[in-house]
Design brief:
Helices cover about 25% and strands about 15% of the residues. It is of the alpha+beta class and about 150 residues long. The protein has one domain. The strands form two sheets. A two-stranded parallel sheet has the order 1-2. Strand 1, helix 1 and strand 2 form a beta-alpha-beta unit. The chain starts with 5 loop residues before the first strand and ends with a helix. InterPro entries: PXL2A/B/C.
């Protein structure tokens, strides 16, 4: 479809493991000041809402991830929720999905439609397993190159 995939994280902690684990095929950046998250008005849960990890959607996603060979931890900023945004080449917003709770993801069919595709062409992701790790030669540059 000729799209540019960009992922933005909130901290450098775990970046190398995430990148080396080959979990994202697009560009990956870190925005430690969360200026992008704030500009997009992405929610952040508080300490008491950490129990949201036990909601049925989050529990289902955690189990699916473990079954597929993904590992996780409880380190870093686990309270920041994310989203999926599709912009056209001019910067106009075509689609937005904002997490309201842990474990939520934008439906792939909705993303495809926003890109001018057909939702029926969305791949079945139920059998995705952990990807093969990247080689050392594919590792990105120094920390300054990763920062937004």
């Amino acid at each position: 479809m000729g799209v540019r995939l960009v992922g933005v994280g909130v901290e450098t902690f775990g970046y190398k493991d995430f990148y080396d684990g080959n979990f994202w095929a697009g560009e990956l950046f870190v925005n430690e000041g969360k200026t992008i998250h704030k500009a997009l008005r992405l929610a952040k849960k508080g300490i008491t809402s950490g129990f949201g990890l036990f909601n049925s959607t989050a529990r289902k996603r955690i189990k699916e991830s473990k079954d597929r060979g993904f590992e996780g931890n409880l380190k870093g900023d686990g309270f920041q929720l994310g989203g999926t945004f599709v912009f056209d080449i001019g910067g106009d917003l075509l689609y937005e999905f904002r997490q309201e709770n842990y474990g939520e993801h934008a439906p792939l069919g909705d993303i495809l439609e926003a890109l001018g595709g057909n939702a029926a062409d969305a791949p079945d992701t139920s059998d995705i397993s952990a990807p093969e790790p990247r080689s050392e030669s594919e590792c990105p540059g120094d920390k300054e190159e990763l920062m937004l």
